[in-house]
Amino acid sequence: MRLEAITWERLGDLLAERFLDLKPDDGSPWPRIAFDGAPAAHPGELAERVAEALRLRGRSALVVGTEGFLRPASLRFEHGHQDVEAYYDGWFDTGALWREVFGPLDPGGDGRVLPDLWDPAADRATRSPYVQLPPGALLLLHGPLLLRHWFPFDFTVHVRLSPGALRRRTPESEHWTLPAYERYESEVAPGDTADILVRADDPRRPAWNG
């Protein structure tokens, strides 16, 4: 796959321009976009950049991170603090994401989205208010391992790090999660599955296949 060098600023602008005309196939008035990537790849920073570019173009966008939908610590660490299987399959409350984020944006939904549910630091509910999205507003959901859950995304962006870069940029205390990303690459091949691939090995000089 051929990738073209680009700046983060230009990438945000070009993605925003592309999303202006995005129409969900299921008739929903709210386009749903994934920014998939390991925490070390910082997909949320790209989502925020795109959201700002959209706002400058007169379109509302809500950025939601899956870290706000972690399960309680008692469930995440039920089999230990470094259980790779639990991290891959059970850390994120996908049921809550379906109920509180995707369900309201289905055709006929009311557009009231809960931006987060659980504070992992305090290990308690956030009690954040719902956000009302007007028709045409975009959901920008970012987080790891997103493309294996059958979420109804209308467009997907995968921010990729090579195995070496992922290891270098992941804190040593989190190296135990790396086998989960190896499995994700093997089972899902997100770089091939996503609509847009962004290579971020050099954090200052990304490249993409746009």
Automatic annotation (TrEMBL):
It comes from the Bacteria. This is Uridine kinase. The lineage of its organism: Bacteria, Bacillati, Actinomycetota, Actinomycetes, Kitasatosporales.
